[in-house]
Write a structure and sequence with these properties.
This protein is an alpha/beta fold. Helix content is about 40%, strand content about 20%. The chain has 2 domains: about 10-105 and about 185-265, HAD superfamily/HAD-like (Rossmann fold, 3-Layer(aba) Sandwich), CATH 3.40.50; about 110-180, Alpha-Beta Plaits (2-Layer Sandwich), CATH 3.30.70. It is built from 8 helices and 12 strands. Helix 1 (about 10-20) packs parallel to helix 8 (about 240-265), helix 2 (about 45-55) packs parallel to helix 8 and helix 4 (about 110-125) packs antiparallel against helix 5 (about 150-165). The protein is globular. The chain binds the ligand O=P(O)(O)OC[C@H]1O[C@H](O[C@H]2O[C@H](CO)[C@@H](O)[C@H](O)[C@H]2O)[C@H](O)[C@@H](O)[C@@H]1O. Its EC number is 3.1.3.12.
């Protein structure tokens, strides 16, 4: 089967993956399912990817998941996933399985740390035109995509400096964002959790950002990791942009549907 945007080595890996008994397909959201845009609330899935994910979720022995740095609420709003798609939010700190949400619960010290984080980011953003703060249950995100490069760099530096003495705020760098969280969680933990609950024989994970590297490091032999875009990666495969993920997902749907049809008596 020819598919122009799917490299040959990935196509072969997808053929192998399509044949496993229990398969988990886990996708990062921003930069993988949805192209990167100026404002977080404007991001939307590529329709072809959303369709392929829904089709995969309807196949026997197949689970789908979005594994995102977004809060669950924000992920649900922009991705509008159906109930079958498993959700990991806040880089692993929040979970939704079926209709059941497992929100993050903060103790008193974490609430105090979140307040300090909010003040630090909000004060920096108020002085740095083009930056803004996104709120999450266990963290805050300083967005700099719409700021001039020098303003963005200075804002991130100032925010880091203000939080340097806090051992209870964990900082992560993402695509033109600085994220702070009062809960230590990684996408690797999220992916290992999903592997456990689905009892998957193999899984696919695709990601584009530095924080997705924890996810790639949680993959085993027989799994497929796909890095979207440039940058160092532990993933075994690479594609250029989210449209290639749409193509890869469509290919996986047809391969798995075909094999499923052959298995059905
Ligand atoms: O793990 P992800 O699903 O990829 O989420 C990572 C962060 O994505 C969002 O920010 C990124 O996408 C925005 C919309 O395209 C873009 O404007 C921003 O510059 C990107 O960093 C989201 O807002 C964050 O909360 C997520 O952690």
């Amino acid at each position: 089967m020819a598919s122009t945007g799917v490299p040959e080595d990935l196509r072969i890996a997808l053929e192998r993956l399509a044949a496993v008994e229990r398969l988990l397909v886990a996708l990062d959201f921003d930069g993988v399912v949805a192209p990167i845009v100026e404002r977080a609330e404007q991001a939307r899935p590529l329709p072809e990817t959303a369709t392929a994910v829904a089709e995969l979720a309807g196949l026997a022995g197949t689970w789908t998941a979005y594994v995102s740095g977004r809060s669950l609420a924000s992920l649900v709003e922009v991705a509008t996933p159906d109930a079958r798609t498993l959700l990991i939010g806040s880089h692993g700190a929040e979970v939704r399985l079926g209709g059941e949400e497992h929100p993050v619960v903060l103790d008193h010290d974490q609430q105090e740390a979140l307040h300090a984080l909010h003040i630090a980011f909000a004060e920096v953003a108020s002085q740095a035109p083009g930056t803004w703060v996104e709120e999450k249950p266990a963290g805050r995100v300083l967005h700099t995509r719409q700021a001039d490069a020098e303003v963005a760099e200075a804002a991130v530096g100032a925010a880091r400096e203000r939080l340097a003495s806090r051992r209870d705020v964990f900082l992560k760098t993402g695509k033109q964002v600085l994220e702070g969280s009062v809960v230590h969680a990684t996408k690797g933990e999220g992916i290992s959790f999903l592997r456990q609950v689905t009892e998957a024989d193999a899984l696919l994970f695709a990601g584009d950002d530095v924080t997705d590297e924890d996810g790639f490091l949680a993959l085993d032999d027989g799994d497929v990791g796909i890095k979207v875009g440039d940058g160092e990666t532990a993933a075994g495969f690479r594609v250029a942009d989210p449209r290639n993920i749409a193509e890869a997902m469509a290919l996986l749907v047809s391969l798995r549907a075909e094999l499923g049809a052959q298995r059905t008596p």
